[in-house]
Amino acid sequence: MGSEAFLGDLEEYCFPSSDAVHQLAAVDSALPPIYSRRVFIFSDIEAQGLNQSRSEAIRVLCHALHTTVEEFPVLANSVSMSSGTWKFLPGQARLHIRELPMSFEGLKNENFATSLLKADVLASVPGMIDFEQEWDCCRFQATFIQGGLLLSVSINHLAMDGISITRVVRALARNSCIPPKPSQENSVAAFDRSRLSSSSSVPDIAKIPAYIILSEAFDFATRTAGSISTRMYQFTEQTLAQLKSDCSLLLPPKSWISTQNAVCALVFRQIIKARLAAGILKPTDKVQYSFAVEFRNIIEPPLPADFVGNAVLFTATTFIPVCDLVAPEGLSLAAAAVRRAIQEVDAAYVDNFIAVIKSLPDPRALNFYGAVNGKTTAITSTSYKNFVMPSDWHLSLGKYEAMRLLDGGLGDGMFVIMPVRETGWEVIATLASPAMDVFEDKEWNKYARRV
Known about the structure:
By secondary structure, the chain is α+β, with helices and mostly antiparallel strands. The chain is 27% helix and 27% strand. It is built from 13 helices and 20 strands. The protein has helices spanning 26-29, 54-71, 104-109, 119-122, 162-176, 237-247, 259-277, 322-325, 330-343, 347-359, 369-372, 433-436, 442-447; strands spanning 3-7, 10-16, 35-43, 77-82, 85-90, 92-103, 135-136, 138-146, 148-156, 211-213, 228-235, 286-294, 312-316, 320-321, 366-368, 377-383, 399-405, 414-417, 425-432, 448-450. Strands 11, 12, 13, 14, 16, 18, 19 and 20 form an eight-stranded mixed beta sheet that branches. The radius of gyration is 22 Å and the shape is globular. The two termini are 41 Å apart.
């Protein structure tokens, strides 16, 4: 099942692997070396007349993680930098157990605000990893609080992207049931990353506008340094419909945008408006919006539907003058720019992306333009909008309530769209504090409210 150890106030259970199941692809090495850290919040089921046992919950989690690691062996690997290249090594997945003097009701009253979910106590890994140490691909932490449970899932982004992580979380929920609910077995091809190191294109960095080449790796920790603020906003179905209509006013004939395109356009524009109001930008500056695109079905030939790895790259809009973006027609201008950027990501785009990575002696030289030039860029690192989170977990864990990101995971100018809830869409945005102080205005409040 797993070995048990005690580390100060932590209990630790380890689930080792005997070998590295595969090696990283070129695409993997282009990602920032970060942990994707999210927390799943459960309310205590004692209120429902059921007896919640801490020991039973731990037993269930150990069983679930053991079974999930068997389904996704890469979870029990570690990653290490060697001669400028990240490599998978035999390792272990870890489950940490601790208790904290927090209350579920206190969190609920604040809509489970990210600012209350401190990474230094709810996760045992940093957001950004260094190049000198060996790092686990996967760590979980179950934190028992008054009236509930916080289950933190930290998976190294070098191991897999958000879609794969969501599949892992669904498997964990399924495997928490005893006996586990039936699942479709992963195909052999699901773990084959070789396609993401193969390209027939002549590399052209100019064709991937979200990236630049530097002489050395960029320190992503600088994006979370200094005085920054994070807020969560909620959109209702009614305000989303109005926003989509407003974004479409000046689109070319027969063009269309999705609701997600509209939300991204609005937040991008609002970030730039706030930076302009705070004196960070000038009307003559040019800005762009950069965001992740998942390409499982775009690459030729397409990857298997159950592919486990990183099938994601970043793209960006063309540069837009600040004065045009903040003008009355700027919302529709932003929406059209987002849509064009999405449409430009085709099979040739992906193939060239791989070719550029392979052409570099050190893949760390490929960096995000928006990270290096943060003041003139807004970034969506991930959208969880379409990620359906499991709600059917073992009763000993409690009742699943919500998913949140841990505090400190977003840098200045970054925002994410959270999983859709019954109350509507939720967006988490982070900005330098002077810009966040002037982020909200009459136009923004027409669509979203702070929660």
